Amino acid sequence: MEPILSNSTERLAVLTGAGVSVASGIRPFRGPGGLWNDEDIESWATAGAIARDPVGCWRAHRGLAKGMGQAKPNAAHVALASLEARIGSERLTVITQNIDGLHSRAGSSNVVEIHGSFHSLRCTRCSVSGIAAPPADEDHEEPPHCTRCGAPLRYDVVLFGEMLPERATLRAYAALLGCDVFLVVGTSGVVYPAAGFAAEAKQAGARTISVNLESDGDTGDSGAFDEVILGRAEELLPGLLGDRAPFGIASSARSE
Ligand SMILES: NC(=O)c1ccc[n+]([C@@H]2O[C@H](COP(=O)([O-])OP(=O)(O)OC[C@H]3O[C@@H](n4cnc5c(N)ncnc54)[C@H](O)[C@@H]3O)[C@@H](O)[C@H]2O)c1
Ligand SMILES: [Zn+2]
Fold first, then answer.
1. What is the pLDDT of residues 130-168, one digit of tens each?
2. Element (H, E) at 66
3. What is the pLDDT of residue 223?
4. 187: Cβ below 6 Å to ligand 1?
5. Between the CA of residue 132 and those of 63, 121, 162, 246, what are the distances in Å?
6. Which of 21, 115, 172, 220 is the most buried (most CB within 10 A)?
7. Over the stretch 16-35, which tens digit does the pLDDT of each residue have?
8. Does residue 77 carry a catalytic annotation?
9. 19-41: b or e for each residue (b if 16 or more CB lie within 10 Å)?
């Protein structure tokens, strides 16, 4: 396989999904061990559920947020953060669907959280936002209330039936349309618009690579990916993005 970046000016955009955080003990939604195989999480993940039952939603989300808040970044997050430290944040953008905040906690600074984050709260009624979520080790059975309008606050994450945050979406498109290489890691590719990002990056001229446990066969001339590398993100990324090859990017990896 070619090195991920082949010269010292190329830009890399990385899209990560739940698979990147599995080694941190956070279960993905789909794929092996996925939350949706055995729990009714989906019913609490909609705009309608927040409107009907903000307190019930708070309790359901709070359990997930506490688990994510106690998790630690793994080798995949660290590999991306160390790559940014080596090549600079202007050459590496991490676009993530994850809401666990682990890329930032690993040290990445150029992170676009297109589905929001469990670290932040906003009002269910008015425009108040950017309120720090309570620490993971505290019990909060009831949602905090908005200091402006009194309505319950909610986690600032994108639920089914909701729009993606505009600023994050614009940043994501700027990165994927302006990169030389687009690397997708640990996402099942069924949640749009992120599921279409690789095809759009490829159409704009980027080389596209997927790292995932399983292949959906989306390769070749008709598919979105030029290369598919099967395996665990936490095992593959340190080698793929390591500092043993020209321009700080290693060249050895098992590829299909
Ligand atoms: N960590 C989190 O923040 C988290 C966790 C679960 C769900 N979510 C949310 O739910 C949605 C889920 O969509 P998604 O596509 O990101 O995830 P997904 O759960 O739909 O799919 C996860 C993918 O990762 C792969 N995978 C599992 N372990 C892996 C590993 N160790 N290395 C590489 N790949 C691995 C699986 O085969 C699967 O294709 C997202 O929108 C996200 O916001 C977030
Ligand atoms: Zn309010």
1. 999 999 889 899 999 999 999 999 999 999 899 999 999
2. helix 54-70
3. 82
4. yes
5. 17, 6, 21, 41
6. 21
7. 999 999 999 998 876 666 66
8. no
9. bbbbbbebbbbbbeebbeeeeeb
In this structure, what DSSP letter does residue 246 have? Answer: G
Question: Is ligand 1 within 6 A of the CB of residue 18?
Answer: yes
- Nearest ligand to the CA of 147 is 2
Mutational pocket test of ligand 1: of 213, 215, 236, 254, the residue with most ligand atoms within 8 Å of the beta carbon: 213
Closest CA to 15 of 178, 211, 215: 211
The domains found in the chain, sorted by start residue, are: 1-26+72-115+163-256 (3.40.50.1220), 28-70+118-157 (3.30.1600.10)
Q: What is the pTM of this model?
A: 0.91
Q: What is the pLDDT averaged over residues 230-242?
A: 94
Q: Mean of the per-residue pLDDT values for the chain? A: 89
Q: Is the CB of 116 under 6 A from ligand 1?
A: no
Tokens of 38: 């055995």
Could you give the C-alpha distances from 25 to 22, 34, 69, 120, 250, in angstroms and in order? 5, 12, 11, 21, 27
Amino acid at 62: R
Minimum-distance ligand to the CA of 28?
1
Cβ(121)–Cβ(90) below 8 Å:
no
From ligand 1's centre to the CA of 126, what distance in Å?
31
Q: Which of 115, 119, 140, 145 is catalytic?
A: 115
**Which of 16, 22, 26 has most ligand 1 atoms within 8 Å of its beta carbon, as the pocket-test mutant?**
22
